[in-house]
């Protein structure tokens, strides 16, 4: 089968690799119809997280079951399914609690696993014609319709992007009436903003420096804030003041909920061209209101081969701990417990209430992957979210 293979820093190639096969009776093999490229892939593509050349990338698949193992009961050949990024067994104590990203059985010696990701288990990626899905009864989320129909792009975003954006809104405790700031207008930040608006947030600000991404934030109903035009924390406070702060809130003027949808490769606002993994967290600490909530959904890695000047190879960070304490804010992190949200969000899509596909900017075949990766990595050519159709 053909697959997108990592061949070294800032290089992927489409290569022939052995077909995905059934290895356990509980597996299925899925024929992939759509497979999205994610900002998470870029951390590896940039040569930061120790991915080995030869790794098949991809963790956001939608497809059709091609073969099912003898013990699989819930899906069969021909079923259309979306496969959550973080695979899980479905029955261990963490899975039983709905904490599927902390599954204790999918990565011996560790917890949690993902397809096509360095350090997250020996599972080949989904930017390929075929994908082996272990514990298929747990991991296949059935969806209606036919490959290539009007919902193809909405459904593929259920594998990771939409659920992760939603998880960010849960980490930051967003509810009806919340005031929200999201740093990062990539797919995850945009869908965190979209999820906030679906939940009824009163005001949503989205911070970035890439014009087409900021435009997309505006299109979704958020207020775009371009950090090239000055300190985004001051700018959001000023916008809130100008808009008229709610009665009684004059002494605050920040936001109740603030999200990091950037991660450790955040741009340093004072040194253009350089990274600063603590930049966004420092901004959130300044912006969040007393007793507010911070959600960190951007990846912070325990292994960074080329840390930025303020960073460390093991991912340690200097963060304003005392500010968090003084303000009494909650700070929550982590990988998405996909399975908590996939069915809920699938049904929001099927009812027509949610259309996350508005963030999809590009399509291509597997052969287009090298070009799409290059543009996406530079946040150029209008690439926000690219979906490959193998
Ligand atoms: N926790 C999870 O389960 C999970 C799942 C998927 C993705 N992620 C992570 O979420 C993050 C975002 O993913 P994406 O696909 O949207 O990536 P992306 O790279 O497309 O988006 C990141 C955006 O952040 C912006 N940015 C950089 N520095 C900034 C700063 N200082 N202030 C504001 N914006 C800044 C960039 O311009 C870019 O638009 C990545 O770290 C990704 O690995 C986490
Ligand atoms: Zn992803
Ligand atoms: Zn488990």
TrEMBL record:
Alcohol dehydrogenase-like N-terminal domain boundaries: 25-144
Cofactor annotation: Zn(2+)
Molecular function terms from GO: metal ion binding
Xref: InterPro entries: ADH-like_N (IPR013154), GroES-like_sf (IPR011032), NAD(P)-bd_dom_sf (IPR036291)
Keyword Zinc (UniProt): yes
Assigned keywords, A-Z: Metal-binding, NAD, Zinc
Signal sequence interval, chain numbering: none
Similarity annotation: Belongs to the zinc-containing alcohol dehydrogenase family.
Protein name listed in UniProt: Glutathione-independent formaldehyde dehydrogenase
Organism, scientific name: Actinoallomurus bryophytorum
